[in-house]
Amino acid sequence: MNGAQALIRTLVGAGVDVCFANPGTSEMHFVAALDDVPAMRGVLTLFEGVATGAADGYARMAGRPAATLLHLGPGLGNGLANLHNARRGGAPVVNVVGDHARSHKRLDAPLESDVDAIAGTVSGWLRRSLSPADVAADAAEAVAAAARGAIATLLLPADVSWADGAAPADPLPVRPAPQVASSVVAAVAGALASGEPAVLFLGGDVVASEEGLLAAGQVAAGTGARLMAETFPARMVRGAGLPDLDKLPYPPPLALASLAGTVHLVLAGATAPVHFFGYPETPGTPVPEGCTVHVLSAPGEDGVAAVRALADLAAPDAEPALLEAARPELPSGELTPRSMAAVIGALLPERAIVVDEALTSGVGLAELTSGAPRHDWLALTGGAIGGGQPMAVGAAVACPDRPVLAVQADGSAMYTIQALWTQAREGLDVTTVLCDNGSYAILEHELRNVGARSDGERAGRLLDLGGPGLDFVALATGMGVPATRATTAEELADQLRAALAEPGPHLIDAVLPGRR
Amino acid sequence: MNGAQALIRTLVGAGVDVCFANPGTSEMHFVAALDDVPAMRGVLTLFEGVATGAADGYARMAGRPAATLLHLGPGLGNGLANLHNARRGGAPVVNVVGDHARSHKRLDAPLESDVDAIAGTVSGWLRRSLSPADVAADAAEAVAAAARGAIATLLLPADVSWADGAAPADPLPVRPAPQVASSVVAAVAGALASGEPAVLFLGGDVVASEEGLLAAGQVAAGTGARLMAETFPARMVRGAGLPDLDKLPYPPPLALASLAGTVHLVLAGATAPVHFFGYPETPGTPVPEGCTVHVLSAPGEDGVAAVRALADLAAPDAEPALLEAARPELPSGELTPRSMAAVIGALLPERAIVVDEALTSGVGLAELTSGAPRHDWLALTGGAIGGGQPMAVGAAVACPDRPVLAVQADGSAMYTIQALWTQAREGLDVTTVLCDNGSYAILEHELRNVGARSDGERAGRLLDLGGPGLDFVALATGMGVPATRATTAEELADQLRAALAEPGPHLIDAVLPGRR
Predict the structure, then answer these.
(1) What is the pLDDT, as a whole number, of residue A482?
(2) How far apart are CA A218 and CA A220, in angstroms?
(3) What is the model's pLDDT at position A445?
(4) Which of A32, A108, A425 sits opposite B454 (nearest CB)?
(5) In this predicted structure, what is the pLDDT of residue A397?
(6) What CATH number is given for B182-314 in this structure?
């Protein structure tokens, strides 16, 4: 058995049975070995950023890692931005990065680069397999390391892949998440009992779990603490029957206002909030001066159990306030971000997975879907745009029986537009609503926010996607995804209803002000 | 004056007056400053790999660096593959990578990553500007460092960009390329005088220069040495009136055969050849055992002067054998890689810049264009696919009065297909012949070459671009580039003639066997 065969068998044995792949010459034995191990599903992408973003979306929904297959340093580089998002969201990923054969490494061939350094910037675990006898054990360790919410990267020399003498390794035991000490829970309960203004700031595992959200709602009901979620959770369960949960706003003035007066900020699964960027004359964080930050649970700990324990201690008899089932009415007339959000809120199917890279076009989206049937919401955790379409691929592979709705800004879509092809090839049930405003609208805002004084044409040209306008219907159909264009709320509703009713991928170009 | 304004003025003063940009929030003051410094041309790309590949192509043709404007670690990551190609080809590039404001850096905001480590993997020069008072001097040093054939990366904190107190810096003197010692030239002349089989192996500056090629031809005529070029030169001058110059073949068996029996391998501007990849049972380099490798000039040295001196010493009276003007006849019938190459050879315009990422579809292309009118040829130096379309952007920006012909493989095209939009927006005179064979054909070859024994369906699916087939006419028109489809040699000739006759970008989908 060669190294590649043992590696794939080990991955499958450890529960990693999907591989998002962009192979090259150094990965050909891995590719060949897919025919020996049918339990591993190989999913081809046309660009590495699609593979890594898909692995991120897969992990968020499956709760376990997929593998990626990447080609040396440049291939890993192409996948780096979405690995950054996965790292920021704590999504487990196992990267297999092919490298030159051991004998070839020192020859400084054209594709040679410092792949170790590139990998080190995103990986919590990193190893180069140096012999076919070791590669399976290395792979088992990679999966175990990833399971703790990390990116694990295995550098695989081509000859370790092709040489015989390998054998599969058993999976390593996965340790459950550490429990929060009861003294921590008691201290937080004491702070909440003070009656001083408090915010329970939720993220990570807590917002991904109905149990976590219901326990948090109980704490809020019993103590008067406000509930708030981190701005970009990796996965958030939402909808009727759950507590109402505002997310911390993105713009610093709104974030500052939303936490003003808070005396106790209790973190559960989230880290303390900081603004996405620094701005002139603005503090770096929305946490008020004098506010005490309490860590109930840190990312990676069992936050759901911690919040449950807090509820039992601080609010044993309280009943959480829950959202009633409610949908907006279907709007009519001009398509705007808000009427687009209303259409989505009116039609969002049960058990949908919403992939949200709407950016500025997403105004109103959270509000107008909050009472919809139960669904999951995946946000852009690390701010590296181009995560949405790939995440939709991964979510759909992880959950083939659930509809995926990608709400996707136009500028960001172009970073990884190749994801549409994989959606078509794999027949994934992804409906993309493409928010087509013809500009990097978020940067037009930011140009003003950072105090840059320019209304000049030359600056404007760098933020404008017109001249020529992008035809997303042509781009989607050119990659095999059926596509339509909506310029009114009625058209969007009709097209969204039709797309959701039919299996497989669809794209709806939602033409918004700015483009019209 | 703020840091961004001083930075841009310094760049322009040092001759860097084009910036291929993908800005984000942290670069908004740089963008605003473009309105203050009209001499800097900002060129928007929709993906960072387009920006960096364009800077590579620009540098190869302009002989000086362009700037890129990238957004933190993920933006640099997206540009890494084409920076790898630029580094491998010795193309100068000045990266300006925006980063968090100094006060924001320690807060570990969502977009924080180890951008220094990412930059270090490709940069010959790397610095973080720590104050507005320093940024202009840092920029001047970056340009000087790049001028020596390196990638220079300036990390620019947002507040260094927006704060006042900066002033432009004067350009630093650029030192000319070092001269090769006459003792080295004499030693090489002595080796050639032995009469033993010798190869003059040319690359870098030597093949980019008519003078270098003519001097090399004189050496060959006078000493009997064979001429050969490196497999993937950054820039090669070609056509009638120059010496005939075979490139070292890519496949190891052909490379080994082409150098078999060589006793003296003289490097001029090139490094000693190694195979792109290691293969089972194959040596890592085509240089025969016992062959002496002589370094006449290393990359970065003045190779043209060295070859000129060698010609004067070793072959003072010899006349180089030069290619006669010759074009293939226009073929008819089925479109194949060879008939496609013949059409290109028949119609290649004078002073064209050919960007070659044809890969397996490029068989016959070099041969059938060798007697065409004088042209430049840009190859994929570092093996990171997806360089072609972006390089075409950069070459066209550098040489607006010359036609650019991109011969582009389909699978590779999809890595940076967004380049077409920038070609349309800037009205660049780029004609793309898209080699549409519906597969990663090079990997189908490589699967066999590496001895991987698989003819299985699952492996094949990872090398096949069908299901759904990519519609490059739709993709191009969706980004504003007029496009047509050719299925016969006659159609290709008609469409190529029309595209070349009309300014601005065009794409011709050349449907090859495999796709039909």
Answers:
(1) 98
(2) 5
(3) 83
(4) A32
(5) 98
(6) 3.40.50.1220
The alpha-carbon gap from B193 to the nearest alpha carbon of chain A, in Å, equals 30
Q: Does A187 touch chain B (CB under 8 A)?
A: no
Domains A182-314 and A337-511 fall in the same CATH topology: yes
Cβ distance B276 to A111 less than 8 Å, yes or no, reads yes
The pLDDT of residue B44 is 97
DSSP secondary structure, A60-88, as one string? HHHSSPPEEEEEHHHHHHHTHHHHHHHHH
Determine the Cα–Cα distance for residues A472 and A417; give it in Å rounded to an integer.
10
Q: What is the DSSP string of B1-21?
A: -BHHHHHHHHHHHTT--EEEE
Using a CB-CB distance cutoff of 8 angstroms, which residues of chain B are in contact with residue A458?
34-35, 38, 42
Taking only the tens place, the pLDDT of each residue in B135-159 is 999 999 999 999 989 999 999 999 9
Domain segments of chain A as ranges: 3-162, 182-314, 337-511
Sheet of B483-486: strands edge to edge?
B236-238, B375-379, B353-357, B404-409, B430-436, B506-511, B483-486
> What integer is the mean pLDDT of B13-37?
96
Does B84 sit within 8 Å of A35, measured CB to CB? no
* Interface membership of A467 toward B (CB under 8 Å): yes
How far apart CA B87 and CA A113 sit, in angstroms, is: 10
Q: Do A479 and B475 touch (CB under 8 A)?
A: yes
Which amino acid is residue A300, in one-letter code? Answer: G
pLDDT at position A454 is 66
A468: preceding bond cis by omega (within 30 degrees): yes
Residues on chain A touching B447 (C-beta within 8 angstroms): 28, 31-32
Q: Which of B226 and A246 is assigned the larger pLDDT?
A: B226
Q: What is the pLDDT of residue B454?
A: 66
> What's the rounded mean pLDDT across residues B204-216?
98
Answer whether A162 touches B (CB < 8 Å). Answer: yes
The widest CA-to-CA distance across chain B, in whole angstroms, is 70
Which residues in chain A land under pLDDT 50?
none
CB B255 within 8 Å of CB B286: yes
Residues of A in contact with B77 (CB under 8 A): 77-78, 80-81, 84, 384
**Cβ atoms of residues A361 and A512 within 8 Å:** yes
User: In this structure, which amino acid lies at residue A57?
Assistant: G
CATH code of the domain occupying B3-162: 3.40.50.970
pLDDT attached to residue B516: 78
pLDDT at A449: 76
Mean of the per-residue pLDDT values of chain B: 96
Q: For A337-511, CATH number?
A: 3.40.50.970
Residue pair B389/B507 in contact by the 8 Å Cβ criterion: no
If pLDDT is split at 50, 70 and 90, which confidence band does B272 have?
very high
B242 backbone dihedrals φ, ψ, rounded to 5°: -115, 160
**Alpha helices (H) in A387-471, listed in sequence order:** 388-398, 410-413, 419-425, 441-449, 457-461
Q: Please determine, for residue B408, whether its predicted confidence score (pLDDT) is greater than 80.
A: yes
Q: Mark out the alpha helices in A376-425 (DSSP H runs).
A: 388-398, 410-413, 419-425
**Inter-chain contacts counted by CB atoms under 8 A, chains A and B:** 324
Q: Are A192 and A225 a contacting pair, CB within 8 Å?
A: yes
Encode pLDDT of A200-241 as tens digits: 999 999 999 999 999 999 999 999 999 999 999 999 999 999
Chain A (243-282) residues lying within 8 Å, Cβ to Cβ, of chain B: 271, 274-280
Phi, psi of A105 (to 5 degrees): -60, -45
Report the residue of B277, B360, B410 to disrupt the A interface, i.e. the one with the largest count of A CBs within 10 Å.
Answer: B277
For residues A288 and A68, what is the distance between their CA atoms, to the nearest angstrom?
42
CA A369-A371-A374 angle, 5° bins: 85
Do B478 and A479 count as a contact with CB atoms less than 8 A apart?
no
Of B456, B381, B464, B295, which is closest to residue B122 (Cα–Cα)? B381
